[in-house]
């Protein structure tokens, strides 16, 4: 009891990581452990997260729950943790190297694939589609966009008009959408690699008095609200809350010499008008899954 | 025009038919100039006559549009400062050429540092020793490892001189070297000039001070409007004649004034003024219709009094009453109440050099001219044009960049902005520094007119003659305090010096 | 006797307080409240973490002394880091990688110098422009992806030790010594003072301010190249955003260290202390695990407080 | 007529005329870019796209216009982006809790203005160089915003409020009206008020300005406060246009705003520049991004192209000015 778990997330601006942190805190509380949050002051800064690892290694927490800001560039950092013999669980983005007790994440590819399939099904398998990508080169984005594209391939009736980056940023997505609407008279569907961009695209459509079906990914609160009000067609649930819960759970369990699951890839859930209710409650009121539930969640 | 000593000598350096045009200004127009070995050659002329420009051409800093150079009779080209240095020409410029955060030794030998053992390094011991020796020869007692930034203007001037001397120059150009020097340092400089002359060094000396022209000069060349007017020997001319050559008309150098018999009501009372800037217990009174002098040695704290009254420096204690009411605060308060400061350094403190004459002329009067707060460029332009006419500022138009005007005209612009603002008390800090005789008399006439119309003036000047000529009375300062007061009848140079000297 | 006694001799130590007070206070504070702060391992940590920034901040000091600025350094470092990664990956040679990084860095530095000195574009603008170019090139050559799989030797640069001292610290110390020698003991150093203090003086001394200025910026770019190697070694990969924004940290460190933006008034050791102060602050806050938002604000507070203290003393 | 001859030799340097020449060159540049884009892409010249460009330029312009005044005094405000983020979050909260957009707008403007004022105090009373002071402020504001938002977003605002950012009036987007209004106010303020004149004078030589009786400290406070308030205004536009606020919205706004000021011909050394120039600077930046979107150029090229444009614009500006003198 009383273990300290250092939780590393990428930034304090993206609501997704807030859900991860709340999940971790929540689980730690139920297990009678303590969390310490480490977040780079500059969002997604590689050197800063490396420094934080070095500092934390000095501090020697009982275990670490780790989201790399970049899955390749942080490998030396992970190896430092390994060298210091601190047990570490990888969550969210799968690190390209290093030894982990366990990985807990969502399958970005199937998230992209399933949400896009849902949108295309709603459109009847045809229509003019645009993709708004996230940050180029980020693992989440690469896989999500691959999923989008594969779904498009399954529907030859659909036409991809453009695939432009919005860097996961609302304003950029809004402006990209505004500009795309100028050169494309008819846009039927928008595949956005996250909710903020999806909502930005919706604002652009609203501003131009145009309609299109839009999907996002992450299942954030604003996405749920938008789904409720019918503006957003769907959002893929990335389930940061569970990732935080389960990462912490595995870390603590391994410290207590209890069995753990080495890999949990959460199954994609497409949140739509029909199934949003469970997601529509404040984070603080959600409860973490138990170990038994976890084993059913998608362990491979 | 003959060479000094023997008539057969060829000039050491000769410039023939030099012309140089700047956009809008013909700075030099077919000027010829000859310099002989071992002479002190005075270069005279009004502000903007082209003296500095000629010297910059001579030392390769400016390239002439036309003209030829001869060194010891042989034709040479001076296309860069390096060319000039090879010929042994060294210059002390009007604007300092020192690097503030290097020490004295490094400044003296900048670009000619003794090489250390490791390539690229400086031999620290040698540079200090060399500098030490050099400073000793010019009688400047200071540690050469002192950073230049901490030196006063006069000390910096001495470093400039040391720097020039260090180049073993055969020709030394000094552009107004005494403008910032105290009497003691001026004497040192004159002694040094005598020594250099004896060693056969030729000196070109630019000055607006008549006394120096006659005490130092072997020959005189006068420029006007970029043309060479004449070359004479001091023995053959009177000051009045020289002035006429420079200005093209006669100028009364006694600056006649209509002294008021009865001074007006009290405008400014300073009681027990003390400030951290180094002045204490200053008591001064200025009445309408008066010009009150404030004299003393350089560093005696005159500027600090002026700045404290104007609110430019914080006041520690004491009281300033202006026009019947106490005054305190920043310069904007003083300005609004009707006090004007014409600061010591017009370039850095008086003008926005890159802005136009018109912009500079109206800047202090904005509130008065446009009480609504709305600015009307056309009306501003008219006000500026009026002032340009009234003050006879020589400028192509109100739109000319003020930094391109000559010093005297720049000074008029600084005064002009306070005329527009309707100031009642004018504080002049060295109003005639670096200004030619013609402009000087115009400025004094202007001050006279201002006080005759009911304003008052407090005038700081290092030229005691000027104080004696134009002031109704004067305070003399010493070491941050008022050492004495001189009435119109007592106002003589001897009295000023006696009161202002240390240990008097 | 000598007038030097009258004139206040400018003691470079006079400038210490601003940074030194802050640094001293931080060390005392964290020593008292942060567990593990004063351990050798942690102190070595702080210093190692400060090396990359110091390698930007030292040349930045020279650039600021010329009344200039180099906003492109962080982006150039990013680009050179990618170059190191790409070239050493392709050739399997660390030296060729370093060579490529230094070459690209020096090229950017030279372009900066050329824009500033020859075209006369204000440094802020010129280097804001090259910042964009370097950032764009980084994205283009990497297509936004990390570059991995580089030879193992590269990584050792960051993690190996020499006589028990971590190699990055050795590199930083050598760099500092080199810059100290360059600035205070060579002719070039004197000319750097003159570039900011009085460019005319250089011209009259027959020297070319333009060439010197280009040299100063080129040194900045070259150092960004070398720091790029360290960055690559640290991440064992290249990444197109790795160094973005570091230039502002470097500028802040220089300012905190007491170098003024005017008239060639610079202090190299102050810069180093400034860099370490930033490092100590971040490290200490990590150790006591304050909320991350406090950490974000604390850097800003540090900068403001240090400059405020400096201002107090210069007025006194 | 010798006077006229002289004048043509040393051309006008003030009362706007030199600036007018520079603005003319810039408008030419805008037309050139437009012509190129029109040739390359059919949809560029559509009314919809032009309004689109204007609306996008307006956000940059609001931030950059206040910044222009700061730069005119030879200062810089690096905190504008962070200020937009904080103000948006604060204003958003007020609207959510009170339900009153008017109150929210006022709070947003006040929050921006207070931050600006604090910048001004650091620059004047504490005498910290503006570049450093506002860089410090940037981090303080980020910290505050991160703490306040705790990783959440605010979204969903009343429809009336959202009209400000996304609504239309007589076929024109409302931000475009605001843009015109503030362009007019800014230009009048800088060129036709004595405060504006004093700001130019301070930028040209702060020491001389103070000794000319200009209350330099108060004017600087005003300028930084205005810059902050304009950031507050931008935050309102942002909020109503995106219908949401999050902590990181400011990061991408600062450098474009500075770039717009510089492309617009305002000199970092102070005393030279116009608000209208900044508008054109914002327009050029937006046009280029818009063009790249329309032509589907990879976003990887955006920083590169922006960098080249900044250098080119300032260099051309200097060229033409030098020829003028
Ligand atoms: N760099 C320059 N650009 C434009 N005009 C200049 C430049 N330098 C000098 N001038 C102009 O050339 C003329 C001669 O200037 P110069 O400095 O030689 O005068 P001066 O005789 O030294 O005057 P002063 O006694 O005031 O020093 C003046 O009208 C001046 O405005
Ligand atoms: N003792 C000194 N040490 C260093 N610098 C000095 C000293 N005395 C005067 N100076 C410098 O000489 C210049 C003129 O002196 P300052 O203005 O300080 O005194 P002042 O009493 O106003 O002189 P003045 O009476 O000539 O106006 C100043 O720029 C100052 O820096
Ligand atoms: Mg001159
Ligand atoms: Mg004085």
UniProtKB/TrEMBL annotation, chain B:
The keyword Transport applies. This is Sugar ABC transporter ATP-binding protein. GO terms for cellular component: plasma membrane. InterPro entries: AAA+_ATPase (IPR003593), ABC_carbohydrate_import_ATPase (IPR050107), ABC_transporter-like_ATP-bd (IPR003439), ABC_transporter-like_CS (IPR017871), P-loop_NTPase (IPR027417). Involved in beta-(1-->2)glucan export. Transmembrane domains (TMD) form a pore in the inner membrane and the ATP-binding domain (NBD) is responsible for energy generation. Belongs to the ABC transporter superfamily. The keyword Methyltransferase does not apply. Pfam families: ABC_tran. Its main location: membrane. It is a peripheral membrane protein. It is found in: Cell membrane. SUPFAM superfamilies: P-loop containing nucleoside triphosphate hydrolases. GO terms for molecular function: ATP binding; ATP hydrolysis activity. PROSITE patterns: ABC_TRANSPORTER_1, ABC_TRANSPORTER_2. Keywords: ATP-binding, Cell membrane, Membrane, Nucleotide-binding, Repeat, Sugar transport, Translocase, Transport. Residues 13-250, 248-504 form the ABC transporter domain.
From TrEMBL, chain C:
It comes from the Bacteria. It is found in: Cell membrane. InterPro entries: ABC_transp_permease. The keyword Transit peptide does not apply. Keywords: Cell inner membrane, Cell membrane, Membrane, Transmembrane, Transmembrane helix, Transport. Pfam families: BPD_transp_2. This is ABC transporter permease. It comes from Bradyrhizobium cytisi.
UniProtKB/TrEMBL annotation, chain D:
GO terms for molecular function: transmembrane transporter activity. It is found in: Cell membrane. GO terms for cellular component: plasma membrane. Keywords: Cell inner membrane, Cell membrane, Membrane, Transmembrane, Transmembrane helix, Transport. Its main location: membrane. CDD domains: TM_PBP1_transp_AraH_like. The chain crosses the membrane at residues 20-40, 61-82, 102-121, 128-148, 168-190, 220-240, 276-295, 301-318. It is a multi-pass membrane protein. InterPro entries: ABC_transp_permease. Pfam families: BPD_transp_2. The keyword Lipid biosynthesis does not apply. PANTHER family: ABC TRANSPORTER PERMEASE PROTEIN YPHD-RELATED, ABC TRANSPORTER PERMEASE PROTEIN YPHD-RELATED-RELATED. This is ABC transporter permease. The lineage of its organism: Bacteria, Pseudomonadati, Pseudomonadota, Alphaproteobacteria, Hyphomicrobiales.
């Amino acid at each position: 009891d009383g273990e300290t778990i250092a939780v590393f997330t990428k930034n304090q601006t993206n609501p997704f990581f807030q859900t991860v942190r709340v999940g971790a805190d929540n689980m730690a509380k139920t297990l009678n452990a303590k969390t310490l949050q480490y977040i780079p002051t500059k969002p997604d800064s590689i050197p800063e997260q490396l420094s934080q690892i070095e500092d934390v290694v000095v501090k020697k927490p009982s275990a670490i729950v780790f989201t790399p800001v970049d899955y390749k560039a942080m490998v030396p950092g992970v190896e430092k943790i390994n060298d210091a013999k601190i047990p570490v669980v990888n969550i969210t983005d799968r690190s390209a190297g290093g030894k982990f007790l366990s990985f807990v994440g969502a399958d970005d590819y199937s998230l992209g694939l399933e949400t896009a399939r849902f949108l295309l099904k709603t459109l009847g398998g045809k229509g003019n589609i645009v993709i708004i990508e996230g940050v180029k080169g980020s693992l989440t984005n690469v896989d999500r966009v691959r999923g989008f594209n594969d779904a498009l391939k399954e529907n030859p009736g659909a036409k991809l008009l453009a695939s432009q980056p919005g860097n996961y940023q609302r304003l950029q997505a809004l402006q990209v959408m505004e500009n795309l609407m100028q050169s494309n008279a008819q846009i039927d569907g928008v595949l956005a690699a996250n909710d903020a961009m999806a909502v930005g695209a919706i604002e652009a459509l609203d501003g131009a008095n145009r309609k299109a079906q839009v999907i996002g990914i992450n299942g954030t609160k604003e996405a749920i609200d938008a789904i409720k009000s019918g503006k957003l067609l769907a959002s893929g649930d990335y389930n940061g809350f569970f990732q935080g819960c389960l990462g912490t759970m595995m870390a603590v369990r391994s410290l207590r010499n209890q069995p753990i699951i080495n890999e949990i890839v959460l199954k994609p859930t497409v949140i739509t008008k029909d199934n949003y209710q469970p997601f529509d409650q404040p984070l603080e009121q959600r409860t973490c899954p138990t170990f038994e539930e976890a084993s059913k969640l998608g362990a491979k | 025009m003959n060479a000094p000593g023997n008539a057969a000598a060829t000039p050491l350096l000769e410039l023939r038919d030099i012309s140089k045009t700047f956009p809008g200004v013909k700075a030099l127009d077919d000027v010829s100039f000859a310099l002989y070995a071992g002479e002190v050659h005075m270069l005279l002329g009004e502000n903007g006559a082209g003296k500095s420009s000629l010297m910059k051409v001579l030392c390769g800093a400016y390239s002439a549009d036309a003209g030829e150079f001869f060194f010891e009779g042989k034709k040479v080209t001076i296309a860069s400062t390096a060319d000039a240095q090879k010929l042994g020409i060294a210059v002390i410029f009007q604007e300092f050429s020192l690097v503030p955060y290097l020490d004295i030794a490094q400044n003296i030998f900048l670009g000619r540092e003794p090489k250390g053992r490791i390539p690229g390094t400086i031999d620290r011991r040698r540079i200090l020793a060399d500098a030490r020796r050099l400073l000793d020869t010019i009688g400047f007692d200071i540690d050469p490892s002192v950073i230049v930034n901490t030196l006063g203007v006069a000390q910096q001037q001495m470093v400039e001189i040391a720097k020039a001397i260090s180049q073993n120059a055969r020709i030394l150009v000094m552009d107004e070297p005494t403008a910032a020097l105290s009497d003691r340092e001026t004497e040192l400089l004159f002694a040094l000039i005598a020594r250099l002359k004896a060693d056969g060094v030729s000196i070109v000396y630019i000055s607006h001070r008549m006394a120096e022209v006659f005490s130092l000069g072997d020959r005189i060349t006068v420029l006007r409007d970029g043309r060479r007017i004449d070359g004479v020997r001091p023995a053959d001319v009177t000051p009045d004649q020289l002035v006429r050559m420079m200005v093209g008309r006669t100028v009364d150098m006694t600056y006649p004034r209509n002294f008021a018999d009865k001074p007006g009501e009290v405008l400014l009372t300073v009681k027990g003024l003390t400030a951290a800037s180094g002045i204490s217990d200053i008591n001064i009174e200025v009445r309408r219709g008066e010009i009150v002098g404030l004299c003393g040695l350089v560093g005696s704290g005159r500027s600090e009094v002026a700045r404290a009254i104007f609110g430019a420096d914080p006041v520690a204690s004491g009281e300033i009453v202006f026009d019947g009411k106490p005054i305190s605060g920043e310069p904007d308060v003083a300005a609004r109440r009707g006090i004007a400061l014409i600061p010591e350094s017009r370039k850095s403190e008086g003008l926005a050099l890159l802005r136009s004459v018109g912009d500079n002329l109206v800047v202090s009067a904005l509130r008065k001219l446009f009480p609504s707060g709305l600015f009307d460029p056309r009306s501003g332009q008219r006000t500026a044009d009026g002032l340009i006419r009234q003050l006879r500022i020589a400028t192509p138009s109100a739109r000319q960049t003020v930094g391109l005007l000559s010093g005297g005209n720049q000074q008029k612009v600084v005064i002009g902005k306070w005329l527009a603002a309707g100031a009642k008390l004018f504080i002049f800090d060295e109003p005639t520094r670096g200004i030619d005789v013609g402009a000087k008399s115009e400025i004094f006439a202007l001050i006279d007119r201002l006080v005759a119309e009911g304003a008052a003036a407090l005038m700081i000047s290092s030229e005691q003659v000027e104080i004696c000529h134009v002031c109704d009375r004067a305070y003399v300062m010493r070491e941050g305090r008022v050492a004495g007061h001189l009435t119109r009848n007592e106002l003589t140079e001897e009295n000023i010096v006696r009161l202002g000297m240390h240990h008097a | 006797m000598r007038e030097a006694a009258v004139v206040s001799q400018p003691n470079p130590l006079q400038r210490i307080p601003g940074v030194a007070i802050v640094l001293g206070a931080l060390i005392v504070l964290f020593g008292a409240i942060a567990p593990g702060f004063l351990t050798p391992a942690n102190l070595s940590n702080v210093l190692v973490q400060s090396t990359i920034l110091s390698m930007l901040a030292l040349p930045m000091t020279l650039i600021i002394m010329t009344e200039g600025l180099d906003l492109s350094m962080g982006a150039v470092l990013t680009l050179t880091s990618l170059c190191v990664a790409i070239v050493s990956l392709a050739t399997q040679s660390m030296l060729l990688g370093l060579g490529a990084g230094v070459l690209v860095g020096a090229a950017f530095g030279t372009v900066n110098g050329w824009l500033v000195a020859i075209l006369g574009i204000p440094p802020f603008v010129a280097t804001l422009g090259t910042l964009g170019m370097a950032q764009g090139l980084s994205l283009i050559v990497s297509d936004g992806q990390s570059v991995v799989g580089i030879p193992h030797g590269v990584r050792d640069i960051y993690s190996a030790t020499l006589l028990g001292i971590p190699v990055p610290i050795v590199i930083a110390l050598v760099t500092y010594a080199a810059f100290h020698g360059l600035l205070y003991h060579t002719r070039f150093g004197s000319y750097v003072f003159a570039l900011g203090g009085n460019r005319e003086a250089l011209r009259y001394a027959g020297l070319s301010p333009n060439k010197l200025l280009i040299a100063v910026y080129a040194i900045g770019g070259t150092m960004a190249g070398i720091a790029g190697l360290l960055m690559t070694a640290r991440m064992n990969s290249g990444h197109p955003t790795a160094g973005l924004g570091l230039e502002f940290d470097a500028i802040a460190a220089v300012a905190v260290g007491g170098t003024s933006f005017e008239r060639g008034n610079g202090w190299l050791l102050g810069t180093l202390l400034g860099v370490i102060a930033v490092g100590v602050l971040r490290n200490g806050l990590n150790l006591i695990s304050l909320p991350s938002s406090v950490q974000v604000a604390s850097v800003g507070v540090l900068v403001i407080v240090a400059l405020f203290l400096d201002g107090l003393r210069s007025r006194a | 007529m010798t006077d006229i001859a002289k004048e043509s030799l040393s051309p006008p340097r003030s009362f706007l005329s030199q600036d007018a020449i520079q603005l003319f060159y810039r408008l030419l540049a805008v037309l050139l870019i437009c012509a190129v884009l029109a040739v390359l892409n059919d949809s560029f010249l559509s009314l919809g796209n032009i309004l689109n460009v204007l609306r996008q330029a307006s956000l940059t312009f609001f931030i950059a216009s206040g910044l222009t005044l700061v730069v005119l005094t030879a200062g810089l405000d690096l905190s504008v982006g962070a200020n937009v983020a904080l103000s948006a979050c604060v204003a958003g909260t007020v609207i959510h809790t009170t339900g009153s957009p008017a109150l929210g707008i006022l709070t947003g403007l006040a929050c921006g203005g207070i931050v600006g004022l604090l910048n001004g105090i650091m620059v004047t009373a504490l005498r910290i160089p503006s570049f450093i002071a506002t860089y410090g402020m940037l981090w303080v504001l980020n910290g505050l915003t991160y703490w306040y938002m705790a990783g959440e977003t605010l979204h969903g605002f009343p429809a009336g409020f959202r009209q400000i950012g996304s609504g239309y009036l007589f076929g024109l987007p409302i931000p475009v009206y605001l843009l015109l209004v503030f362009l007019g106010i800014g230009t009048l303020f800088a060129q036709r008020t004595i405060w504006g004149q004093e700001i130019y004078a301070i930028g040209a030589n702060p020491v001389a300005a103070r000794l000319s009786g200009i209350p330099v400290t108060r004017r600087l406070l005003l300028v930084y406060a205005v810059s902050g308030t304009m950031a507050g205004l931008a935050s309102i536009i942002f909020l109503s246009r995106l219908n949401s606020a999050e902590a990181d919205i400011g990061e991408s706004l600062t450098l474009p705003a500075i770039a717009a000021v510089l492309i617009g011909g305002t000199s970092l050394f102070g005393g030279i520049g116009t608000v209208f120039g900044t508008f054109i600077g914002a327009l050029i930046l937006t046009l280029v991004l818009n063009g790249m979107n329309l032509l589907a150029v990879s976003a990887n090229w955006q920083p590169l192209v922006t960098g080249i444009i900044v250098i080119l614009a300032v260099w051309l500006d200097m060229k033409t000015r030098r020829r003028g003198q």
